Amino acid sequence: MWSKVKIKEIILKVAFNRTIRIQEANEDGTMVKFHFDELCKRNFGSSDFRAIANKFDVVVIEHIPRLTLKEHDQARRFITLVDELYEARCVLMCSASTTPDEIFNNYYNEDLEDNDQLVTDENILDTKISGSFGIDVAQSNGMTVGGMASVRELSFAFRRATSRIIQMSSKVWWERQQKGQGIM
Prior knowledge:
By secondary structure, the chain is an alpha/beta fold.
């Protein structure tokens, strides 16, 4: 589908008088294509992703990697991007190194010893930062209460993002969006 579209570069205005240079958008401005790194390795936030989501009906994201602890900033940006695209009811096309269920699945399992972390049966991450800084914090089963809340929040965000990727890439979503927005 993308190979049949005439593409051009555009400058998209975003919040705070900033702009984003978009390399590949179709002429009528309804479709855009990005490499994962263009969006998630740059210092973009929700307002940038919201501007993209509000401008384009169809967003193509290529080369989504399996995310690990080393890419925690990219993982958080990707989750924010998915949330903004979902809220704007965008159609999503993805190419990834793995299935949506596996994008975040390896997040807590790689290089655990190098990062000085422990993983429980529920994939709960326990960073030992508080001990390193001599901070006395409430604990439950050897894990700080704040750490448990943060991990649970991230775990929920991963599940939500996975669910939304699957939904936005589904035939039902595409058909509903075609009828509602006249895309494609």
